[in-house]
């Protein structure tokens, strides 16, 4: 752990945060990821860099011993915090069983008439327990499923949903439970005695159904926008394939080309690759040896340097069709991977498929 080096963009983004002591950065990243997936609603979940900016100072401000001392006194917020730190190993020794005990204590305290435990903390504890049980759904080799762990994950996720709290974890568990109900085909799993209990997770299944309707509406709305301005949502460079969920995810040409054909790009390299084809539309009267025709002059960017293009699109959602076995493709969407990395990954997968190693 002491040799772990944080990603360079984390150091540059947060300055003093990790420049002096990088010990435990992996655990801090795990903490931020776990909290984001369990203790925020799916529509409020932030990127890991944003979560680091929010949670890392909190971890540094209070040691695990301080948190656990308060938790022992049944401070419900610190019971939750102590469990998350034990689960991720942030500032303490990782102990998954101890983490679950902290969270279960919240539910026990909530049943005591003299204990004041907010609905929010109870919902977060249930979401954390759903995540912990979901991690136990397969054996160490991912060869067989533990259907009892899946049911327990569904039980806790349903409890969180009953409070109206729908975290990314709750949706993940709920979606899988729905798949099992509709098509119980996991090999080597005996579903008898489980399916009816799965069907009784009313709050969880209702939350999944609502989210599916939202996603259908979002997709329809997005498709309408793309149909009106397709060039604004897809990188114009030949062979690139990067698409953006929002216009701000790509950089548009700032030249004199007509708005209806104005191209967008995911990177400086893509703009250069497309410049030969686009130049006659963008600068039709320029001489062929005119250096002002360089594409750097016409891309929409607020600084003279193109080297900071990644900072303009960082955190924006991009998608790319990835090759899959059988000649199929899978659309991959990410807010953390750069377009360049996504394309590199696509090309690597493509090569491995051709070689027959995937």
From TrEMBL:
Record Pfam families? zf-MYND
Where is the MYND-type domain positioned along the sequence? 237-282
Task: State if Metal-binding is listed as a keyword.
Answer: yes
Q: What is this protein called?
A: MYND-type domain-containing protein
Gene3D superfamilies recorded for this chain? 6.10.140.2220
Q: Which organism is it from?
A: Cerrena zonata
- GO molecular function terms noted in the UniProt entry: zinc ion binding
Q: Which UniProt keywords apply?
A: Metal-binding, Zinc, Zinc-finger
- Source species, domain of life: Eukaryota
UniProt entry tagged with the keyword tRNA-binding: no
InterPro entries named in the record: Znf_MYND (IPR002893)
């Amino acid at each position: 752990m002491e040799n772990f080096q944080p990603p360079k963009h984390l150091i540059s983004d947060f300055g003093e945060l990790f420049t002096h002591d990088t010990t435990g950065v992996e655990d801090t990243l795990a903490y931020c990821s776990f909290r984001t997936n369990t203790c925020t609603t799916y529509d409020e979940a932030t990127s890991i860099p944003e979560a680091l900016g929010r949670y890392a100072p909190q971890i540094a401000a209070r040691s695990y011993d301080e948190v656990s001392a308060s938790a022992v006194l049944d401070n419900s917020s610190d019971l939750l915090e102590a469990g998350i730190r034990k689960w991720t190993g942030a500032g303490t020794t990782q102990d998954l069983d101890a983490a679950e005990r902290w969270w279960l204590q919240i539910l026990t305290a909530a049943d005591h008439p003299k204990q004041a435990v907010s609905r929010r903390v109870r919902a977060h504890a249930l979401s954390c327990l759903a995540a912990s049980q979901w991690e136990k759904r397969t054996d160490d080799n991912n060869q067989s499923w533990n259907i009892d762990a899946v049911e327990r994950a569904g039980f806790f996720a349903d409890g969180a949903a009953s409070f109206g709290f729908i975290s990314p974890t709750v949706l993940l568990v709920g979606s899988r439970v729905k798949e099992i109900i509709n098509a119980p085909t996991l090999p080597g799993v005996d579903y008898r005695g489980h399916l009816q209990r799965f069907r009784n997770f009313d709050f969880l299944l209702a939350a999944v159904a609502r989210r599916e309707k939202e996603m259908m509406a979002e997709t329809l709305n997005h498709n309408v926008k793309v149909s009106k301005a397709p060039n604004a949502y897809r990188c114009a460079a030949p062979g690139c394939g990067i698409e953006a969920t929002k216009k701000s995810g790509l950089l548009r040409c700032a030249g004199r080309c007509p708005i209806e054909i104005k191209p967008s790009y995911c990177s400086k390299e893509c703009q250069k690759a497309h410049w030969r084809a686009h130049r006659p539309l963008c600068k039709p009267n320029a001489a062929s040896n005119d250096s002002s025709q360089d594409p750097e002059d016409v891309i929409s960017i607020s600084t003279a340097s193109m080297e900071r293009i990644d900072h303009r699109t960082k955190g924006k959602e991009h998608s790319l069709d990835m090759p899959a076995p059988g000649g199929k493709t899978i659309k991959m969407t990410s807010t953390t991977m750069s377009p360049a990395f996504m394309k590199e990954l696509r090309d690597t997968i493509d090569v491995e498929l051709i070689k027959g190693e995937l």
